[in-house]
């Protein structure tokens, strides 16, 4: 080969276009040479970049696909027969081939686990080219993992049932551990001392915590929810669950880590509005006396099967196996990476025309909550961060030194994250075994498709769209819009930060969230909008770019199973500039919210929302609430349309200062809801196979939470939050165990899960009066029994009640249509000797009295929250009188009456 031909090869390798190759071939071949000589030169030059003489002679051709396999070699060319090993090397090959792209370029990911040593970073260089896409195509069993296998397990001498293993290389800290794909519980338990809050933490009744191993790794958790029986509210509102690490302990002095402690326990108050924090979300300080509910990440509470602990100082992982587990043969994974895919587009150079398909994103963590920042939650995974963040962050011009814009708190990151992405697709993927949010489509994401994916076993939010840092982006490139989230299944989340939601949407435009199934979630299913809280001080909501967002034809059920004051669809703030371009919530079927809340919650500053043609039932209320519109001085409510729904709320038609209610139908029997609405909600037929996708072996359910009780004569009444992580098989029963303070007397009762769901409490009889009892609860499914719940506060049965009955309920009202009536009331002002456990409704037509109970009955009392129930099978044009009476463990009180004509 002549030096000239060699020089042309070097040139072709640097430019790599067929046109250049043909030109180089003509120059390299002698002028008098035959056609065969030209073709021979073409063959030589074509081989320089992997082509053939014929392909080069024909002109433009697709860039060669890239092949990857876990057993590949990164020195290989990435062909079908010689694949590379890592996605990172495949990305580098793609970068070289995109300039010659004339069709979609596919990265073929063979089945298997790709253990990432660092996040797969994608930027504009990894985008599609010439109008075509780069497709990362996986298949069944293709996993992007940020975990490390934990091996070398041995029993710990002198500790029956406890095993240990050396931490693998690279594991310095993690917040999760998985055994055979099942999330293990980080060691937790009751706090062994009595704590008294101080300015910097606590004074303990004894020096127990100071003697524990690694006190600075201990984390205090502040679970929330509505106050109930002897359950306190520990968080910054019933929708939050802050967490803070201990900074240090000396004797009985517990000093909490900063800035988490101040950011979680302090708020700036308006000087002229006592008790109103300037951030306007929740109370002015941590409730419950700033006392934690339980302790986590301490070796000393590693006492139940399924719990684990990482001793970072000795680099040892400890685990108590569940029944049937053998750590020596189990697959144990500890997440190390905090991101798996990091899409770093910019406004000037976006990441674009990329699809990620058929990939399972698993085993990533998030370590900020383990740092002094902790997890100072405000709402939906947004936290207050930074030194003195409590008095500056997101407080804007409401306080000196406040940062703008208002309410721009710190968003939970995504383990898979894209910023400034255009024409991005995630389809047929799984986001599971993750420690932060699952998928984050951040600032500047546009024309993105999230379709046919599963989101489950995620510590925080399932997916996040846009943000709240820029209500009015300075550049069109920073606007998040035209994101389509359709036909996904989101369930059994959040696992760790229980105030998280399945889908979080910030300030965005033209987004569609449709035909998803969301079930068994701890708090709200979908959260839309932001920045509406200033209406609490008579100010308009934050002006923002949001408009034309749609939440349609979703199936949502069994939501708010850990916290309260949320909804199937929660929305707030300005959603548009008119009812025409405001948010549309249509065609959804939303039912069975466990906590106190709504099916659709139009919260602070929620303007121009249309709620139309939905089926809504099984909640404390269906569509609430109306707020004053402070954009003008007219005294109207925020403009809202509530039309054509099938619901239990039963509000009559009317216009209430801007809230239009029209053509709604009282739904007495959910089975009678319109078949077309029900059939169209949730996953479309081609995607219903997602409901059968699993990512771990079936396991016992997660333990119930928020166990509360009260004592009566020889018995204890017990309530709890059900297990929304069922382990792959439905929960069949709950077992409640009451143990006397001396441990000598134990009584248990088992209730079917379906019965508990209806009545929301159980009674343990046969107890000894005058003896304190501690109550715990376990859940059982077809696989086995859960861990034992954290105990309720001890209670003492007694026969010495006064016999006082509850007062009559107050504010009883009735609204009727032709065949059904909605009754509404508030709890009695006093309940006598014991809390209300139900209501008895009698109807003047002589039918058998209806007993009303459920979680909303139990949690409605401390804050006098409203109740509603539907009475069906009424005759048209008939007068009825309804009587409502409260029921307690002592007996039934007097009734309150209301009459209505159908």
Automatic annotation (TrEMBL):
One of its GO terms (molecular function) is hydrolase activity, acting on glycosyl bonds. Residues 66-92, 785-806 are annotated as: Disordered. Residues 700-799, 805-902 form the Fibronectin type-III domain. PROSITE patterns: FN3 (PS50853). It comes from the Bacteria. Keywords: Carbohydrate metabolism, Glycosidase, Hydrolase, Polysaccharide degradation. InterPro entries: Beta_helix, FN3_dom, FN3_sf, GH141_ins, Ig-like_fold, PbH1, Pectin_lyas_fold, Pectin_lyase_fold/virulence. One of its GO terms (biological process) is polysaccharide catabolic process. This is Fibronectin type III domain protein.
């Amino acid at each position: 080969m002549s030096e000239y031909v060699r020089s042309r090869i070097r040139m072709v390798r640097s430019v790599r276009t067929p046109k250049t190759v043909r030109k180089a071939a003509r120059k390299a071949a002698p002028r008098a040479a035959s056609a065969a000589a030209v073709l021979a030169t073409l063959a030589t030059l074509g081989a320089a970049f992997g082509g053939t003489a014929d392909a080069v002679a024909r002109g433009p051709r697709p860039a060669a696909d890239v092949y990857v396999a876990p057993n590949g070699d990164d020195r290989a060319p990435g062909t079908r027969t010689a694949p590379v090993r890592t996605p990172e090397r495949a990305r580098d090959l793609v970068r070289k081939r995109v300039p010659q792209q004339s069709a979609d370029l596919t990265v073929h990911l063979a089945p298997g686990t790709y253990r990432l040593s660092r996040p797969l970073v994608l930027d504009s260089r990894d985008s599609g080219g010439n109008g075509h896409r780069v497709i990362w195509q996986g298949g069944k069993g293709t996993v992007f993992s940020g975990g490390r296998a934990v091996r070398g397990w041995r029993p710990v001498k002198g500790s029956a049932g406890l095993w240990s293993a050396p931490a693998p290389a690279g594991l310095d800290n993690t917040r999760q551990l998985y055994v055979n794909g099942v999330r293990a519980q980080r060691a937790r338990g009751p706090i062994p001392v009595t704590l008294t809050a101080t300015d910097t933490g606590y004074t303990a009744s004894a020096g127990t915590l100071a003697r524990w191993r690694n006190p600075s790794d201990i984390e205090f958790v502040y679970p929330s929810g509505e106050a109930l029986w002897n359950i306190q509210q520990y968080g910054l509102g019933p929708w939050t669950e802050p967490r803070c690490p201990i900074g240090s302990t000396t004797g009985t002095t517990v000093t909490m880590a900063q800035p988490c402690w101040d950011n979680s326990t302090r708020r700036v108050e308006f000087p002229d509005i006592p008790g109103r924090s300037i951030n306007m979300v929740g109370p002015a300080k941590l409730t419950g006396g700033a006392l934690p509910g339980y302790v986590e990440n301490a070796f000393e509470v590693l006492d139940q099967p399924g719990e684990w602990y990482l001793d970072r100082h000795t680099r040892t992982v400890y685990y108590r196996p569940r029944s049937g587990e053998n750590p020596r043969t189990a697959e144990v994974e500890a997440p190390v990476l905090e991101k798996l895919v990091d899409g770093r587009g910019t406004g000037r150079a976006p990441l674009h025309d990329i699809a990620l398909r058929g990939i399972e994103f698993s085993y990533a963590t998030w370590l900020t909550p383990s740092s002094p920042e902790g997890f100072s939650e405000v709402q939906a995974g947004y936290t207050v961060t930074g030194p003195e963040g409590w008095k500056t962050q997101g407080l804007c011009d409401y306080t000196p030194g406040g940062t703008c814009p208002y309410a721009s708190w710190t968003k939970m990151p995504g383990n898979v994250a894209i910023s400034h992405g255009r024409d991005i697709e995630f389809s047929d993927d799984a986001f599971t075994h993750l420690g932060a949010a699952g998928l984050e489509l951040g600032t500047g994401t546009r024309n993105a498709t999230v379709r046919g994916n599963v989101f489950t076993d995620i510590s925080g939010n399932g997916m996040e769209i846009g943000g709240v840092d820029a209500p009015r982006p300075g550049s069109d490139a920073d606007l998040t819009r035209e994101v389509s989230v359709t036909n996904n299944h989101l369930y059994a989340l959040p696992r760790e930060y229980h105030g998280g939601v399945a889908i979080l949407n910030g300030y965005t435009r033209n987004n569609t969230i449709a035909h998803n199934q969301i079930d068994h979630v701890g708090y709200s299913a979908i959260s839309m909008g932001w920045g509406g809280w200033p209406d609490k001080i008579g100010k308009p909501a934050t002006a923002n770019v949001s408009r034309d967002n749609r939440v349609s034809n979703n199936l949502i059920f069994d939501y708010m199973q850990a916290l309260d004051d949320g909804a199937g669809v929660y929305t707030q703030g300005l959603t548009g500039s008119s009812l025409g371009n405001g948010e549309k919530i249509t065609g959804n079927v939303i039912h069975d919210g466990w906590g106190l809340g709504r099916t659709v919650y139009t919260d602070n500053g929620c303007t121009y929302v249309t709620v139309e043609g939905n089926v809504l039932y099984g909640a404390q209320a269906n569509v609430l609430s109306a707020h004053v519109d402070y954009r003008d001085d007219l005294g109207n409510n925020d403009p809202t349309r509530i039309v054509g729904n099938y619901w239990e709320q039963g509000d009559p038609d009317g216009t209430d200062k801007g809230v239009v209610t029209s053509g709604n139908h009282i739904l007495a029997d959910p089975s009678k809801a319109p078949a077309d609405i029900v059939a169209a909600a949730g996953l479309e037929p081609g995607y219903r196979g997602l409901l059968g996708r699993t990512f771990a072996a079936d396991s016992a359910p997660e333990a119930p939470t928020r166990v509360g009780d009260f004592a009566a004569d020889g018995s204890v009444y017990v309530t709890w939050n059900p297990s929304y992580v069922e382990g792959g098989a439905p929960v069949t029963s709950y077992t409640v165990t009451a143990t006397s303070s001396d441990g000598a007397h134990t009584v248990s009762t088992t209730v079917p899960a379906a019965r508990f769901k209806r009545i929301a409490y159980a009674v343990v009889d046969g107890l000894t009066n005058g003896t304190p009892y501690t109550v715990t609860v376990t859940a059982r499914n077809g696989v086995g029994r859960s861990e034992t719940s954290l105990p309720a506060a001890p209670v003492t049965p007694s026969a010495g009640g006064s016999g006082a009955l509850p007062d009559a309920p107050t504010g009883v009202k009735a609204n009727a249509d032709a065949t059904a009536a909605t009754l509404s009331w508030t709890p009695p002002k006093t309940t006598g000797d014991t809390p209300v456990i139900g209501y008895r409704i009698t109807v003047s037509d002589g039918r058998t009295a209806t007993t009303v109970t459920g979680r909303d009955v139990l949690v409605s009392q401390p804050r006098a929250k409203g109740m509603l129930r539907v009475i069906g099978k009424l005759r048209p044009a008939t007068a009825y009188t309804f009587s409502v009476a409260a029921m307690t463990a002592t007996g039934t009180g007097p009734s309150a009456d209301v009459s209505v004509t159908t």
